[in-house]
Amino acid sequence: MAPVRENRTLRILDAAAAGNYGVLAAIAYNIEQLTALVRAAESRRSPLIIQLFPSTLRQLPTLAFAAAQYVKTAAVPISLHIDHAQDASHIREIMQTLPVDSIMVDMSHYDQTENLEKTRKLAKECHDCGIAVEAESGRINGGEDGIADTGDLEALFTTPEDVEDFIKVDIDILAPSIGNIHGDYGLTGPAEGQLHYDRLESINKQINNRVLIALHGTNDFPEDVMKRCIRSGATKLNVNKLLLEVWNEFYRKNAAAMPLVKLIDQGMDVLQKETERWMDVCGSSGKA
Ligand SMILES: [Zn+2]
User: Fold this and answer.
1) DSSP at 191
2) pLDDT of 9-63, one tens digit each?
3) Quick one: which residues bind Zn(2+) 1 (predicted)?
4) Residue 18 near residue 283, CB atoms below 8 Å
């Protein structure tokens, strides 16, 4: 078994950290979106992390294998990541049955002590399978598809102690809570002062290359906010609606009238173009 450091997701992110650019970690819900994301990566010569939700693994059991086939055959570095895996038995099933490169072991709905203990145990098991591990420190508010909403739990900003605690339980990628939310910020993006760039910068300094940084909650981000987060130390940019909204909008407008094959083709084109634009923004274009 190759050491986890040679893991595909970590190699992609190590190169991004060394080169001061960001890599899109893009959610796909179906084969069309998956295909469009990979086409964008190849046309822009950009690395890419494909993300699937645990709920999608249940809904479309073959999608992970399609993604893994792209990981194997694409002309650029691509890896397959499972986002927000919150159920220990599902995480174990994923490790044992699916060709994934990395998993977000998200125990953030437990209190800190339990979160750390469960994360430590699952991280060890993932590493034994060559799978890299991401974890969320602090608590990012909101909920996404199939993910336990943090509900009335209070959002907690990541503290320096949190950072050390999570590094100690041997994770590879840290997703800090710096004012980012799972959900919509509104048309113009995060309000002035909502994202704590200084906190992100000091977390990055403190980490000093021991782990990599993932940024969650990028819906409605303007380009300059994305760039600023990357400059402040985020290398893995989790994107969902930020890319997919153009695809949703295209389907909303055209699904009733357009023949299916044409709808599929043009929908993929729309998503590919939007993905290419964000690869340019993140600075990953031309880096593969
Ligand atoms: Zn997230």
Assistant:
1) P
2) 999 999 999 999 999 999 999 999 999 999 999 999 999 999 999 999 999 999 9
3) 84, 182, 216
4) no
Distance, in Å, from the CA atom of 145 to the CA atom of 55, rounded to the nearest integer, reads: 7
Cα within 13 Å of Cα(169), Cβ side: 28
Residue 106 assigned to a binding site: yes
196 is in an annotated binding site: no
How big is the chain, counted in residues? 288
Distance between Cα 84 and ligand 1 center (Å): 6
CB-CB contact of 4 with 130 (8 Å) = yes
Per-residue pLDDT tens digits for 74-132: 999 999 999 999 999 999 999 999 999 999 999 988 988 999 999 999 999 999 999 99
216 is in an annotated binding site: yes
**Cα-Cα end-to-end distance for the chain:** 25
Annotated binding residue at 164? no
Find the 94 Cα to ligand 1 centroid distance in Å.
18
Q: State how far the Cα of 180 lies from the Cα of 162, in Å rounded to an integer.
A: 17
Report the alpha-carbon distance of residue 103 to residue 52 in Å, rounded: 10
Q: Which residues are catalytic?
A: 83
- Find out whether 123 and 133 touch, Cβ atoms under 8 Å: yes
Domains of the chain: 4-282 (3.20.20.70)
By the 8 A CB rule, do 229 and 208 touch?
no
Ligand 1 centroid – CA 258 distance (Å): 34
Compute, in angstroms, the gap from residue 280 CA to the centroid of ligand 1.
22
